[in-house]
Amino acid sequence: PVCTNLMDPPKLDDLLARDPYLNDFRGEIAARYERFHELKSRLEENEGGLEAFSRGYERYGLNRTEDGGVVYRDWAPGAQAVFLTGDFNGWNRQSLKCEQKPYGVWELKLPATADGKSPIPHNTRVKVVIQTQSGDLVDRISPWSHYVVCREDVKLYESVHWDPDVPYKFQYPKVKRPHAPRIYEAHVGISSEKPEVATYRHMADNVLHRIAGLGYNSIQLMAIMEHAYYASFGYQVTSFFAPSSRYGTPDDLKYLVDQAHKFGLYVLIDIVHSHASKNVLDGLNQFDGTETCYFHSGGRGEHSLWDSRLFDYNKWEVLRFLLSNLRWWLEEYQFDGFRFDGITSMLYHHHGIARGFSGGYHEYYGGDTDGESLLYLTLANHMVHTLYPECVTVAEDVSGMPALCRPVDEGGVGFDYRLAMAIPDNWIKLLKEVKDDDWNMGSLTFTLTNRRYGEKVIAYTESHDQALVGDKTLAFWLMDAAMYSNMSMVSERTLTIDRGLALHKILRLITIGIGGEGYLNFMGNEFGHPEWLDFPRAGNHSSYWYARRQWNLVDDDLLRYRFLNEFDLAMNHLEEKYHWLSDEFQYVSHKHESNKVIAFERGKVLFIFNFHPTQSFPDYQIGTGRSGKYKIVLNTDSGRFHGHSRIDETTDFTTSPNPWDGRPHSFLIYLPSRVGLVLAVDEEAA
């Protein structure tokens, strides 16, 4: 029902016209927008607006003053007293007491030294000492710390004051958002083939050229925010403003981002605002001596599955902290956009735990939805898109919430894309549970196209999630132990290897072809990286063996991995030429169950797939909406990609005015078994 006493989003009618089922929830959509508008108005009234409010890093933590001194501030409402200590004062824990300010803020001003230098030297250790309400003195790290380093003797992170005399100067400008992101998902620590933690500079100097050379236009850096536990893949964040020191210094990360921009790569950072590590001594938990400082109290402040703390997004200073964190990564490190992790957990009070989503709209509105988290996400998207029009935000959401990826002024949450998480799960399910002969073409196509109209998604065959321990890479599901013995060019090309190579190419091609409006690949999977991903931990004797990327496999001309890599390059460059990902037109004309054939038009190109493991078709009729002379522009069976070269790629396929599959034109084509083709009209001939 329409709720006339609420403020409608300015373009709500556009949203309702796009999805009429939302009319039943118009009142709740308007209520969400009104809460957003009220909060934005309060920020303007009390803080001078979002632009000023989100610069908290200029006020909190350690900041240099104009006279060369340092001012320290932190929000610790539950503290009885706050002190600052470190190398600079001989670790005297109570000699420098902060002054209590309104709203739970504590402040300490330190003048410059007699020779005009900073009272806290660059690259020296600093700690905050909190006197709790019980009178105890406890050591903490400032939530706004820019750099934290692990002490190997105690395995505890300590804050290090990062304030070099000569700040890093970026050499290359930020990159504008691409027409459609082709994302290379990467983890700095595993970017070396050596069993070690790789560095920012190693990745910049040795890996970026591979990514750019393959034709990706974006890179998504995972596990950048500091996390004490390496094996958490960066999801248990302990210091939100500090880049992980295990890979190098803050300047080293700036060098990596700068070099990525040199290659024309749009750089996204994986941002974790859905929860925080439970660590107390080197984390955000119990910073002021209470459990409620940045987090909810009781059960609402705990994530039972992740064993982590949950933010109280209703608190003013929590909003300042998180919004400023977004600005920090965009300003200080020149990141271009964000992948927001764990959005499903934020959107619902049940956090998606033991819940399936049927797609019924009642699941997204009402008491299950966490309005405070939703309000924060809406505010965050509004802020970054207003202040940084080129910023892209991607939501990791499995629930399919309506309007998550529609503009705020329509009543949406404001994300640009969501991850199409059902697609990789479906590929793994098919490979694990269903014989090739029994693959259902209708179900397969439905999964690839099942997304909300007008809400863009990033499609992928596999990400880091599929490769983590307990699962394995797509290539390993396809070929398993045969990869150890038969990936050499001098070894037998077994049926297992032949099937694996063919399907690895086909699955990637159909996914980028119709799975979404963007594409993602996880580091190494472009060449069929074997095995799985496992970080050093007690369960594997602290081994780095599976926490690395074996670039030697793709660089060896005697191994078959290079053909999968070559196909990835051709696929990316073809998308760059035809831009089908950003083209709204797509039409699936053919899904034949017994033949295992799928055909669809996307933008200006035509995709044809034969999934049949043994059956080839000499004269297969394909319908198309556009007449002309078609040429094959990509063929998974090409000898370039270690295929069988069963198709003469010089052949032209001229349409006839014979309607087929609901399309006005058609032509005949030879379709070998297990093949994927892309065809385009010869514009010169046209």
Please summarize what this structure is.
The chain has 686 residues and is of the alpha/beta class. Strands 10-11-14-17-18-19-20-21 form an 8-stranded parallel β-barrel.
The order of strands across the largest sheet is 10-11-14-17-18-19-20-21
Number of helices: 17
The residue ranges in which pLDDT falls below 50 over 5 or more consecutive positions are: none
Query: What class would the helix/strand composition place it in?
Result: alpha/beta
Give helix % range. 25-40%
Proportion of residues in extended strands: 15-25%
* Biggest beta sheet attributes: 8 strands, parallel, barrel
Shape: globular
* pLDDT averaged over residues: 96
Distance between the termini: 53 Å
How many individual β-strands? 29
Gyration radius, rounded: 27 Å
